[in-house]
Amino acid sequence: MPRSFTTTTLLLLCAVSLSCDSLDVPPPPDMESVLAAYANPTANVRADIMAESADHIDTVHDRIEDANIFELILAVVIKVQKGLNDATNEDGTLNVEGFSIQAPSGVIAVEHICGGWDPEGLRDGEESPDRANGILDLIMPLKSGSIAPLVWGEAVQCRYLEGASRASFDGQIGVHFGEIFPASQVIRDLVITFSIVGNLGFDGTEFPIDQSFRIRGTGQIDILFETDDGKTFVYFFEANGFTQGVRDATGSYDCSLERRECAHPSGTFSW
Q: Who wins on pLDDT, 229 or 241?
């Protein structure tokens, strides 16, 4: 079993057995309003809103895709998920470090040391990643052996390579998987909602971000935006790289940021 999973499992056992009081779990973010905004967007998007929002939509989309922070987070969740699955019997008993727990409920505290910007990874003589590369801390609650829908935490100056580019994130993280799921679940099949607040870095430029976005199993990215009067809409980019559009209070319709036009059912508009 990976050492990083063993460490988090000791914290899990502490929480399950109530045998220690030292596990300081930060409060979860309130993502209910975000989920409600995706389910029922309230804005009526027309030319005036797109004229104000189009450049911002394009920039946010580019930053999210360039830095690919969601892939880093999912990779950490999947690693812990695999450790749980490997350590759980068919009857739902978790076996780790000499302990057996039937359908455990508790909290997994994950500490991931970020990979840094060295393209060669660990240097000769190093046994573990350098904490100077930053930390990604996540809280993953368990309910009767399954992983709860909301995972949250923070990144502290987390540096990582995205391709050949230097990326980083420093800030708060909330991830909602839509439903409670077993350790055997292929999570990339789920609709996953992210909420990040902080600074996203890419190739030497830092971008302040306070944004929710959603990754679908099809590869589609939905990004939630709010108008000046507090109403919400979703701008989506399908995985084919060509289809994009708006989902608002009136429904869903195609748009093009490049052509600066949308094909609304009531008539095409441009800005």
A: 229
How many CB atoms are located within 10 Å of the residue 101 CB?
Answer: 20
Dihedral, CA of residue 23, residue 26, residue 30 and residue 35, to nearest 10: -60
**Coil vs helix vs strand at 257:** coil
pLDDT tens by residue, 210-234: 999 999 988 999 999 999 999 999 9
Report H helices in 146-251: none
Q: 90 Cβ partners below 8 Å, 6+ apart? A: none
DSSP label at residue 148: P
* Cβ partners under 8 Å of residue 159, min gap 6: 114, 115, 116, 117, 133, 134, 166, 167, 168
CA nearest neighbour of 104 among 136, 148, 73: 148
48-85 pLDDT per residue, tens: 999 999 999 999 999 999 999 999 999 999 988 998 88
Q: What is the C-alpha separation between 218 and 220, in angstroms, rounded?
A: 6
